[in-house]
Hints:
This protein has 360 residues and is mainly alpha-helical. The chain has helices spanning 2-35, 42-82, 91-115, 121-134, 136-149, 157-173, 184-190, 192-200, 217-228, 235-255, 258-269, 272-277, 284-304, 307-321, 326-342, 348-359. It has 16 helices and no strands.
Amino acid sequence: MKVFMDIVSERRRELLILWSVFALLVFSQYIFSYRHDDPYSFATAWTYITGFIRYMIAPWLVTILLIVSAYVVGRVALLRFLTRGIRFRTQLEESIYSISIGLGLLAILTFVLGLAHLLYPFVFGLIGLVILTAGFRHVVHLFETIRRSFRPLEWDLLETTLLFILGAFVLSTIFRPNNPSIGWDAMNSHLVAPKYYLREHAVTFFNWIKFNSFPQLQEMLLTLEMMFFRDPGSSLIYSFMLGSATLTYMLGTRYFNRKTGLAAAVIFLLIPEVFRDSQAAYVEHVLIFYSLLTVHAFLRWYEMRTVRWLVMLGVVAGLSCGVKYLGATITLIVLALVVIAHFIPIPQWETDLIKENDVS
C-alpha cells in the first residue's frame, strides 16, 4: 500500500510540474502580447501557444520519434548480430551505440527504398509502427534507463556547477534550432535534396543541387524528418551536438574522472562555432558525432582486443564515411592505429588503469 501511495504521489508531482509549465507558458504569452501592444485576450495567447507547439514542439516530437525508433532498431541489431559477448560498461554507452547504429540503418533503409521509388509517408509510417510495436520492450527499456539516470548521486560543488551550466545551456537553447534553417550549405544542398527526393518519391540525382553526389547519410535522415514535418528546422542536428557532448563526457569520465568528463562537455558546448552550426542543417555535427564514436570504439577495442569491438569499430567508421568524405580520413588514421596497436602489447600500467576505472 505504501508503494502504491508513493507511486500516486510521484505521479501527482509530475502532473503538478506539467500544469505549472503550461501555466507559465500561458503567462509568458500574455506578457509577450502585452509588450507588443496586442489585445490582452486569451485568443491572442492561444494563437501564440498553438504557434509555439506547431513550430517549436512538433519538430522535436518528430526528432524524438526518429531517435526512439533508431534506438529500437540499433539495439536489436546489437543484441542479435553485432555485440553477442560484448559487455558495455554503462547503460549510457549501450544507448549511444544503439541510437547511432539505428540511425545509420534507418538512413540505409531510406536510401534503398528511395532507389525503389517508395518514399511515401504511409510506407514509412507503417514501418515505424511495426518497429515501435515489435520493439516495445526496448522502448520501455530506454525510458527506464532514462528514469534511472536521474537517481540521486553524490555531486560535489564543482560537479554541481558544471551540471548547472549544462542544464542552463540546454534549457536556453533547445528551441533555437527550430527557427527556419539558414546557411549556404543548408539552403543549397542538405535541405534542398530531401525536398526533391520527396517530391519525386525517389532518390535520384539532380545536377542543379550542389554536392548531390556527396555522401547521403544526413540527407536520408533529413528526408525521414521532412516526410512527416515539411519544415523540420535543425532539431536533429542539435541532437547530434548533444550526442557529441555526451561522447565527450564518456571519454573524459572513462579515462580520467567525472569532473573531467563534465568539464570537457561544457567546454565543447560553449565553443561559439559548435552552437552556431547546431542551428542550421550543416553536416559538421553529424560528422563530429560519428568521428568521436569511431575514436571511442577504437579505444574500447584497444582495451578489450576482441573481434566484436573491431567489428563495431568498422561499422561506426563506415557510418562516419557515409556522412562526409572527411570521415574516410579519420577512418584511415584509426585503421593505421589498429594495425600498429595489434603488434604492441598493452603496458601493465594501462591495464591497471583500465581495471581501476572499471571498479570506480
